[in-house]
């Protein structure tokens, strides 16, 4: 899509796109955010979407549909708005069907637009997505109480599929879009990221994520903190763009509470070469101050347990809660006596302060397809300073 909209203020004009007669619009956002330029102070853009120096805005993301498309422009101001130019480019039906076969491609969608507001003492949630898909772009805009202050210190945190440890965490907002030391000299732009605004406040950043690893099978939550530890007043707005479908791509089929006698017996849990059990009360690296207390075990040998899975699975995901007081936890994974040869379960990081960690291991379908349960054995491997494998809780997801 191409558009030329001179003189139209941010958020006055919105775009709505509905594919294949869906009840709700798949895309519903301000036109500036749709074109990667929410503030509109300067012309910035990335490969996928942006605004050129001549004032023409573009969005080149493919937007597949199979039965029909409805694209609307919604005037949310009290004035008459005029668009100098608007183009929509379509592929031929044959080319579209061969490139985006139905059932094998997601719909191009936006999260619900977050209006500019402050969130006190917690991360500002820019977007929540449910279903199955892949995030491809993020737009975040921030405004502090007064101009001329450094207002981009907050970290971006992305949580995928309900995991408590963020899979993505930046070192400040500017680091998320590949710049350092604040936003003092806008505009800046490169093929995958850019930012607009006035020096440090207000600012707006855009990142193209199509080449990054943001797949989700159940949900995705994208947040950003205000200051060093949510100690600064910032008004955040923004939106996420993704390809997705409504149905989830994984099912929770079992849980094992290590340290709970009933749960251990129900799953045939055994720890050989164990160093015993211990209780930990600590927090996650999630930007909150919540504490969790749990009983778990550690072993220098191996642990084993049997869990239920969906026979329709196309793989199984194991999620573990563990203590990351020491790093480089590694274990060999066996399923029904057969080693998963492609890789070990390995997590390199450590945090002796916020010690709770949730990490995951995916078992390929060749070990799990058609089965209603599997027996998993995790054999500790020495790596670095770590002296044992520890485990407090397991969630078992069948990928579908």
Automatic annotation (TrEMBL):
Gene3D superfamilies: 2.60.120.1390
Superkingdom: Bacteria
Pfam families: DUF2961
Name of the protein in its database record: DUF2961 domain-containing protein
Organism in which the protein naturally occurs: Cohnella ginsengisoli
